[in-house]
Amino acid sequence: MAGLNTGDKPVVILRKKRPSVSPPTSPAVKKGKAPPVPQPSAPATKGAEPKSQPPAQPVPVLPPRAPVLESSSQPMPGPTGRSVAYRRRYEERQRFVQSPEFTQIATAMTTRWPHLFRVTPETIRPLAIGIYHDLCAHLPEFPPKLVHHTLSQWMADHRVLYWKAVMQGGPRYDLEGNPKGEVTPEQQASARQQRKAWYDRREARRKQCEGTAPEAAPSDEQAGIE
Question: Can you give the pTM of this predicted structure?
Fold first, then answer.
């Protein structure tokens, strides 16, 4: 070929190869850990209805609360107008009357001294002053307090007849049935007042409970047969 120098060596042109660039790796890959694989969500089932929420329960409506009244410092009176101390003494007396000690003391009194404690409207008599101490001396097997309670209960059970006997005056009698002392005019007047007050209270309670008019106090003859 014309113009070609066959004696010259061929010229080889070398081209630099571009380095390949690898994508950046995550820190987990660098440490040798595989990245977490995302879990595919469950496909929605065709035709499936969504779950319904349970209906809300209705809230009950409470009635309005009544106002609380402040308590008074004074005790409320009982149905009969008696005080708290009186009702307490009455309950204690009722418990004692139902106790075996009361039965034993009352039986001893009516058995050993029937002329004084087994009474009728015709035979009841005023008792000597201080006869309680004589009873305690003759009944040492019982506590003096219980003997006193038994004698007080006997007086309460025969109050109307006993007041009538005192109102009539005359001698008082000891355990042996012997006269010991006299009923004074002041004691007669006191028995008359106690009897009238007792009848007034009884008629007032009857009027309050039954709504009836109070009756007059009975005569001495009527009181003697009750």
Answer: 0.54
Give residue limits of the domains in the chain.
Answer: 84-224
Helix (H), strand (E) at residue 97: helix 84-97
The architecture CATH gives domain 84-224: Orthogonal Bundle (1.10)
CA distance 163 to 152: 14
Per-residue model confidence as pLDDT tens for the chain (226 residues) = 444 454 555 655 666 666 555 555 554 444 455 555 555 555 554 555 555 565 666 665 555 554 433 333 344 444 455 678 878 887 888 888 889 999 999 999 999 999 999 888 888 999 999 999 999 999 999 999 999 999 999 999 999 999 999 999 999 999 999 999 999 999 999 999 999 999 999 898 888 887 654 455 554 444 443 3
β partners of residue 36:
none
| Cβ–Cβ < 8 Å for 87, 135 | no
